[in-house]
Amino acid sequence: MNRLKSVRIVLTALLLSFVICSTNVSAATYKVVKNDTLYKISKLFKTSVTTIKKSNKLKTNTISPGQKLKVSAKIYTVKKGDTLNKIAKANSVTLASLRKANSKWSDSLSVGQKLILPGVKPAASTSAQTASAKTFAAASAVESASKKAAVSYTKAEKDLLARLITAEATGQPYKAMVAIGGVVINRVQSKEWPDTITDVIYDVPAGYYQFTPVKNGYINKPASSTAIKAAGEALLGTDPSKGAMYYFDDSSTNNWLWSKTKTAQYGNMVFVK
């Protein structure tokens, strides 16, 4: 839970972003290999787990080797004289990511071969640049639903946030529950963390789970009615954590957490930034 971002995305920008993203359709297919996770793939293609799940209609984060996923990435056609290194440099991608995206571990290439350029978005076609009435209607609905929200979110993300609050703060004061939601919102608004509620909660940088309930599976237990109410308040911008980026139980012996600036405490839950 890092620094609080000072500038929030305005609704107009959200609407424009929605339209642009909808025109930038997936242009490549990535084949899942052993030890892949949606998080790793999202970092490779510079997108979010949520976007990949939506593009592929995935209901869970479970994927299997050999599974094919649609990803938004430019396709490059190999030309005479090309090498993997030249292609990587010309398109500002690393050689390692180029190999990974294409499962290309040898240096051999053939003219006409197609390669995925990870992180390089395909150009929108002229027709795609003109959004349809249906797209604008959907975008307007998102704008309308999010007018009073601190961040954009879906019904599923509100439930996910409520389940996190249930797992972390059942038995704690109500303010602690809202504050936990506030911490997640603060992360979404921070440039240092993923930009959706789902990606923040499931974030596992360097293999380190940010939220214990994700690791132990408690995140999958149904949310309590109180937690759902607390999640709703947090999503509307209520933040009893006072800008906190971390929270922990006061029985913790983690010196690094205790060294942070304390912003609030409710019951056993300590909030710091």
3D structure, described in words:
The chain has 273 residues and is of the alpha+beta class. The protein folds into two domains: 25-123, Membrane-bound Lytic Murein Transglycosylase D, Chain A; 155-272, Arc Repressor Mutant, subunit A (Orthogonal Bundle), CATH 1.10.10.2520. It is built from 13 helices and seven strands. It has a three-stranded antiparallel beta sheet with strand order 5-7-6, covered by helices on one side. Strands 1-2 form a two-stranded antiparallel sheet. It has a two-stranded antiparallel ribbon with strand order 3-4. The longest helix has 16 residues, at 174-189. It is elongated, with a radius of gyration of 21 Å.
Give a brief description:
The chain is built from 13 helices and 7 strands. The chain is α+β, with helices and mostly antiparallel strands.
